[in-house]
Amino acid sequence: MTTQVRTASATDAATIAYVVATAFHPLDVTRWLIPDPQERANRFPHYARILIDHAFEHGTIHITTDLNAVAVWLPHPLPDPPSYATKLAYACGVWTPRFQLLDQAMHHAHPQDLGPHDYLAFLAVMPQYQGQGCGAALLDHHHNYLDEHGRAAYLEASNTHSRKLYTHHGYTDCAPPLDLHYQGEPMYPMWRQPPTPGNNRLA
After folding, report:
1. Which of 113, 144, 157, 175 has the fewest CB neighbours in a 10 Å radius?
2. Could you tell me the residue range of the domain that residue 80 belongs to?
């Protein structure tokens, strides 16, 4: 069965935040950000909404029609969301310093000299639908647009499993893994250059 993808609207914001928070809940980096599971479940949707709302204003969000998978893209360069520090503190509470460390590490790794590109802030699939091609369908959907416009893409893979998925879709490591001094898998900065004209490489 083919996965159907559509562009999300602002009315989908709460659902998108829930999918992101649920999919990211067991990741090593997320467990480090907010160790308490209940706090993580309560706070992460509010954190995700900061970037989701920013993407509705400036970027692109795609969602599967069954609402079980989402991809949140932001153009780069792009300023931080308005009042970002205040919103981050409200969303993350006592865990804000760890989110600030994550921001600093991601900013340090993010290529600044390779020209405009799209940044994949979140690719999230509900746990029971992972491994069924939903993430690949979302990637292909946006990569088609990027390739038509000769535009590159950047992301941070959250673990070796997602890194394999992104490698299959044309991404390569572009910086050392993020060093945040937690136990578990690091995040891997990855870059995707669009195919040159006449190159039939898969997206």
Report:
1. 113
2. 5-138
